[in-house]
Amino acid sequence: MKTKLLCRLAFAALAAIATPVSSGSEPNPSQVLHRTVKIDGLDIFYREAGPREAPAVLLLHGFPTSSHMFRNLIPALADKYHVVAPDYPGYGYSSAPSVAEFDYTFDNLANVVEKLTEQIGLKEYSIYLMDYGAPVGFRLAAKHPGRVRTLIIQNGNAYEEGIDNDFWKPVRAYWKERSEENGDKLRPLLTIDGTKWQYTTGVRNPEAISPDTWGHVQPLLDRPGNQEIQLALFHSYGSNPPLYPKWQEYFRKHQPPTLIVWGKNDQIFPAAGAHPYKRDLKNVDFHLFDTGHFALEEDGAEIARLIRGFLDKHTGK
């Protein structure tokens, strides 16, 4: 009996040593949290991680994805930075009202993101701008230059160069004439083949691209009424090039430190759109990657390393 008691005491002591003590009152700041707030009656979903007192990084996703595109980048930054990645209306886990209930324009997407930053208390932030995230983020930056500490640009345009290729011809036709016929020519981009094309074209190794990407995106695109949402935004994209001179003036006047991490094989926003930033921005850290549109999928670890070094330098952390 004495021997058994000693054994039980020994096992209990070992268990106490091996089990970490947690009060339950000290959350891990690097844990990714999944939150929703009301903005103008819409549920806007966002991912958030990192110490709230740390420099903030606002991650703005592209088409046709959502904050899901940052699922690996967020924890890679969250030990030192306060990271926030929203889903726009019509994307991810945010509300997707019909086109009759919400006017899907880039002005309105930017308004929603602006109100989100104000509601959750982001007073200053760096912005990661990708694809659709570029016209959303540049609207914010031009309107509130004092809030933007740095820019991280990945395959998102602010110049005419790079949106003059074959991909854009049917899109430009839709800007010029918003007809059913012109809209139908863009619907293949909303199919599973179109989605896979975006993720895999231009990559070094297609087997490195997780099917979780289109597995997340396509069911959301296939929701009733969502194709009309996407067509509305295809048309609204035509509102962006006329704003390019305003955004370029913002670059010249305010000179935000800028990191460019661009997939050079992108068939939508090719490398021709990356180089012109160097005309107007004096402090540019410029990198082209041998990959496609969604550069984070193949080169996320290296991009995260560059972002950390860039933010460490320019945000004082």
TrEMBL record:
<dbReference type="InterPro" id="IPR000073">
    <property type="entry name" value="AB_hydrolase_1"/>
</dbReference>
<dbReference type="GO" id="GO:0016787">
    <property type="term" value="F:hydrolase activity"/>
</dbReference>
<feature type="signal peptide">
    <location>
        <begin position="1"/>
        <end position="23"/>
    </location>
</feature>
<dbReference type="InterPro" id="IPR000639">
    <property type="entry name" value="Epox_hydrolase-like"/>
</dbReference>
<keyword id="KW-0378">Hydrolase</keyword>
<dbReference type="InterPro" id="IPR051340">
    <property type="entry name" value="Haloalkane_dehalogenase"/>
</dbReference>
<dbReference type="InterPro" id="IPR029058">
    <property type="entry name" value="AB_hydrolase_fold"/>
</dbReference>
<keyword id="KW-0732">Signal</keyword>
<protein>
    <submittedName>
        <fullName>Alpha/beta hydrolase</fullName>
    </submittedName>
</protein>
<dbReference type="Pfam" id="PF00561">
    <property type="entry name" value="Abhydrolase_1"/>
</dbReference>
<feature type="domain" description="AB hydrolase-1">
    <location>
        <begin position="55"/>
        <end position="299"/>
    </location>
</feature>
